[in-house]
Amino acid sequence: MKTHFPASILVLFSLLTLFQFGFSLDIVQRSCKLAAKRDPYVDYKLCVKSLRANPSSKDATFKDLVLISIEQSKANATAIGSEITGLLKGGGKWGKYSSSCLESCLEVYSEAVSDLKLGLVAVKMGDYETANTEVSAAMDAPLTCENGYNEKDGEVSPLTEKNGGFFQLTAISLAFISLCQ
Ligand SMILES: *[C@@H]1O[C@H](CO)[C@@H](O)[C@H](O)[C@H]1NC(C)=O
User: Fold this and answer.
1) What is the pTM of this model?
2) Interval between CA 166 and ligand 1 midpoint (Å)
3) CA neighbor of 73 nearest in space, from 143, 177, 170, 179
4) Residue 22 falls inside a structural domain
5) Does the beta carbon of 103 lie inside 6 Å of ligand 1?
6) pLDDT digits over 10-56, tens only?
7) CATH code of 118's domain
């Protein structure tokens, strides 16, 4: 089969594609790359995915992205809180110890939501030190929640995966904040 494309056009096209992948990363990709370089806990793909979930990330400044990232963490903490409430409502299948673990997880996640709200306020005011403190506090929630289960033999946390996901999201927020400091 004969191609109608002159070779030079194909070469040009390949070069443009290369440029696109190599150089013209957008603000989300560039910021996530920086964050991942800064902090080994940052998962580049999750970072891009979670920021893109908010359409305004497209024409965002870096500071907007910091806010969007914290909002994502906050939304996650809120959703995890609702899931825990749902589990507790599930009724009798939890023993006494497990329900008390779930209740304390619910409490730490609702504190995390408050911490993240304060973190958002701090970023808006340009107070990155306070933002760092607040987001770091929120980041303790998954560890505190898991630890409750680890204190008793045979207790299996139903929240391990969610705790891990929230930890990763807050790690992204924290890396973004530290890039501002
Ligand atoms: C929280 O974020 C993680 C990504 O780290 C995601 O996998 C999980 O589904 C989210 N949880 C909720 C309840 O939204």
Assistant:
1) 0.86
2) 7
3) 170
4) no
5) no
6) 677 776 666 555 567 899 999 999 999 999 999 999 999 999 999 99
7) 1.20.140.40
